Write the structure tokens for this entry.
Amino acid sequence: MDNEKVYAMSLAKLYSCLVNKATRKGRTEAEVKEVMEWLMGYSPEEIDRLVQEDISYGDFFRKAPMMNPRRKMITGSICGIKLDSIEDPLMQDIRYLDKLIDELAKGKSMEKIKR
């Protein structure tokens, strides 16, 4: 999929997909927010507000209060693509979140997810 299409997608729509993925596997929405807080610096209240405002997914990442410098420790693949081979920094950050939510859904402890 074209990066610009991903960036233009609705945060509200993608957020519900992330939450559904985690909750189907017995995790909670609060844990999804905790992962987002660790990765991007948003508080749970800020996430709720931004979902209601329905900003784009790209802007959600662009306006993040503080991307965690330890996110570079996230390794592996998402959708068959190695995270460290993604050249676009914004897409790489989006894929980091995808990877963290996958780990959450697979039952990894929050301590290990947060590295």
User: Anything to note?
Assistant: The chain has seven helices and two strands. Strands lie at 77-78, 81-82. The longest strand covers residues 77-78. The longest helix spans residues 89-105.
